[in-house]
Amino acid sequence: MSKLVAVGACYLDTILTVPYYPKEDEKLRAESISRRRGGNCANTLEVLQQLVRLEGRDKVRDTDRDRDRDEDRDKKKDKDKDKDKDTSPQASLVLCSVLPARSSTATQHILSSFAEDGVEVERKCGHQSHCESGSGSGHSSRSGYQSPSRSASRSTVVVDETVNLTSCIYRETCVEPAASYIFKSRDAGGSRTIVNYNDLPEMTLQEFVAVADGLGGQAAWYHFEASSLFGRIPDVILACMKHLRQRYPAVTISVEVEKPDREGLQALAAEADVVFYSKSWAQGNGYQTPESCLRAQASLAVKASTLCCTWGSQGASLLELPSLVYHRAPAYRSEELPVVDTIGAGDTFIAGILYGLRYDAQDWSMADKLAFANRLAGQKVLQEGFAGLVDAVEQRQP
Q1: Are 367 and 328 in contact (CB under 8 A)?
Q2: I need a labelling partner for 78 at 20 to 30 A (CA). Which of 92, 240, 344, 378 fits?
Q3: Are 348 and 380 in contact (CB under 8 A)?
Q4: Residue 48: in which H helix or E strand, if any?
Q5: What whole-number distance in Å separates Cα of residue 275 and Cα of residue 280?
Q6: What is the pLDDT of residues 75-90, one digit of tens each?
Q7: 121: closest CA among 53, 68, 48?
Q8: Is the entire prediction scored with pTM above 0.70?
């Protein structure tokens, strides 16, 4: 399967939940502390990993349904069809980031955060000699399909969507990771203040070119976070994009434009196919609404086909190009659950859009893709972290 490569900084986050933001020189006791792997691209890949896993499960169950419907088909044709349909999305997601020494505790923690075992899903086997028998209840998929009980003849397929980290660059003389210290205020509705530290040498153009050329035609999509991974001025990111345009013209490029005080982001937007603008960047550049931002950017992002802008509690918007069809989705709100963790909501939204654009398993319209991404981000703020996020969305569907 062709790969989606996310290029950005990877952090270790320390999150302190406090009753309120302390004043200068004030001593305040935190209510809780948690530590987890962070970074925009890493968070996006973690959510995509769950989405691809779900898609893999559904594909296997769809194969079950097809076989039940066509039992009289020639077994050899069934076997050939399965080879096409059961293609695993293994290593279809790739992280390209700068990490400390491979043997460092921090790097091992980051690596283990993605190294989930393959998810076992069951598929009816057409060959009795390879089948196992067991007992158990059926399982309902998101499509509404109820799989048969395990008492039927079965084989086990492992769908492994572990994020591939072999394209990361290791600084063997460094042991400290990029780190974020996040103060999350309960009194302020879960808003957060972030202090970053990153002393790792930046990725160079030559290093990125080596990664891109190593992946070659296997990579179909590159998503860039305009982060300090390449230094404060993102000239290197622009050079990376231009290398991809020249060497791999068929590849799709997306970019996140987030920090309003970071120079050169407009040039990155002009080179990308898909652009994600943050509310802070839009307001910092004089736009008062997401629609005004996207419509103005349509004439500047000359290669883009899709522009997105998140606007916090007011939801998100998407502009199709060149048709200039505008879509808006209001923020998802739960009447039952409070907002508990806004960290990574934007990364989750990006994952939802990338999934809709890249995989498009259900042939959604653009409005559907925006609504799905918005719903996913809305669920994210209702829970701590990202674990089980996609399953939670599935369970809360009406």
Answers
A1: no
A2: 92
A3: yes
A4: helix 40-69
A5: 15
A6: 444 444 443 333 334 4
A7: 53
A8: yes
